Amino acid sequence: MEPHLPFLLVRAVPVPEEREAFGRWFRHVHLRDVRRIPGFKSIHHAEGHDGSLIGLYTFRDAGGVQATLSSPEAAYARGTWEQWTPVLEELAVEVFVPMVPLPLYHSRN
């Protein structure tokens, strides 16, 4: 991952009896759908020791985050999660965007 590029982090923990099926869907269906979303530069995934699945999706640039997340392809990818919500113990989706330094202001009395 390149420094200063925004990224989306997804962490999902399915119930133990659905881990295998969810893992197959995540790796073979979800990641395929995410690769179709315009605006991502790279896509990585990992599996945690606790059965969690993690997706790390790096945006091409900070200016395109909203367009990427608002695309029809992104809406489709989000919609396919609905079938899994009953079997997820946890689902976290976080967007990290670098902040530019704020200018310093001096007060005058």
Textual characterization of the structure:
It is a single chain. With 109 residues, the protein is an alpha+beta fold. The protein has one domain: Alpha-Beta Plaits. Helix content is 28%, strand content 29%. The protein has three helices and four strands. The protein has helices at 19-35, 65-70, 72-79; strands at residues 7-14, 40-47, 53-59, 88-96. The protein has a four-stranded antiparallel beta sheet, with helices on one face. The longest helix has 17 residues, at 19-35. The protein is elongated and about 65 Å long.
Structure summarized in a few sentences:
The protein has helices at residues 19-35, 65-70, 72-79, and strands at 7-14, 40-47, 53-59, 88-96. It has 109 residues and is of the alpha+beta class.
The radius of gyration computed from the alpha-carbon positions, rounded to a whole number of angstroms, is: 17 Å
Whole-number total of structural domains: 1
Low-confidence stretches: none
**What percentage of the residues does DSSP assign to strands (E)?**
25-35%
General shape: elongated
Order of helices and strands: EHEEHHE
Note the gap between the termini. Answer: 46 Å
* Strand line-up of the largest beta sheet: 2-3-1-4
Can you give the helix content as a percent range? Answer: 25-40%
CATH class (first level) name: Alpha Beta
Mean pLDDT: 91
Question: Based on helices, strands and strand pairing, what is the structural class?
Answer: alpha+beta
CATH topology title: Alpha-Beta Plaits
Count the DSSP helices: 3
Would you count the extended β strands for me? 4
The CATH architecture classification is: 2-Layer Sandwich
Main beta sheet strand tally, sense and closure: 4 strands, antiparallel
